[in-house]
Amino acid sequence: MARACEFDQSAVLTSAMEAFRRGGFGSVSIRTLEDATGLKAGSIYNSFGDKQGLFRAAFAHYVEHVLRARIAEHAPPEAGLAGLRALFVSLMHEPDDGALGCLITNSAVEFGGSDAQPAAVHAALEILADLFGQRVPAAQSVKLLALYQGILVLVRAGWNKPALEAMVQAEFDQLDGEPNVA
Amino acid sequence: MARACEFDQSAVLTSAMEAFRRGGFGSVSIRTLEDATGLKAGSIYNSFGDKQGLFRAAFAHYVEHVLRARIAEHAPPEAGLAGLRALFVSLMHEPDDGALGCLITNSAVEFGGSDAQPAAVHAALEILADLFGQRVPAAQSVKLLALYQGILVLVRAGWNKPALEAMVQAEFDQLDGEPNVA
DNA sequence: GTTATTCTAGAACATCTGCTAAAGAATGAG
DNA sequence: CTCATTCTTTAGCAGATGTTCTAGAATAAC
After folding, report:
1. Domain of B60?
2. From the C1' of C9, which residue's alpha carbon is nearest?
């Protein structure tokens, strides 16, 4: 019917997502997003409405292509508790040393001070809570969720990774010795 | 020798601190800080050098008058493991529902994407790590640090507080049954 | 080929940002 | 009192911010 978009939507979302993971929503400007995505401001506003719209799309992209992909890779349904262990351990082996933080954790912190937390943040946390809840008793699953978020904070803060990994291993060793859900 | 400052430094730092706890460093402007502290921009720059200087002072104020005060209240040296339990439980009973987040956790996340994490953030995390390390075996103390940070993220995200508190109680019940350091 | 429609490019807008300069007000030393 | 010193206030600067507008380029239906 008319001219088609020239850019690759997925590539654009990936680079916007990385910019937001590094700096958060507030400190990444439209100019920075222009450089990161290769798009001009006009095209960004034409395609996503406004900065929030691009963020929402990038957040959804993160949930789908980073979080869900990570779960699928390390903790598919049949992997059980060992899958959860691998998922946790993988957090300490990101090449970026926390510079690319978790967009969910970072957003929970960044928007937690405002009146309304975006529903997307809560929904994303729910994905993890559900995953843990399926493989571990309820009391333990809340602990795993908190541990997961805490590890991401500490990795981003540059905390000693081997110590974190040893802690994860010990924690799952203990979980292995208890009755679980599956 | 000359005119004295009219404002109460501690009160100014407290209100600046609260503003930063709510919004982080980046999204709190000098105008907002003027309103929060009652000072005019000129006085702020005269007293603290620049925005970073005020933030540094507010961060130190937080460590001294919020973190250390919280430890002294709930977990004095003689309180042992029960003190740590009370410390953790207190995180779920803040009246602000996470709108006033922990300045340490929030800063770790906000500055984690930049080249150099401020040393003050790491030092503040060390305070908690040391506290835990004195009352619990090393492997457990790392877990408590991660749990502590994760709880703060989840509280700020509006997560179910009774579930978090039950998790904390269960975790410390288990710790009570193990040999500890003291 | 015309035309309607949608994308892209670039300049521009009003507002907000951190910060500074200049003038007035308070203080203590001489 | 004088005066040097320091605080407070106000106004303003240069640059960055999110956003919009306009002109131009590409496409597909007719």
Report:
1. 56-177
2. A40
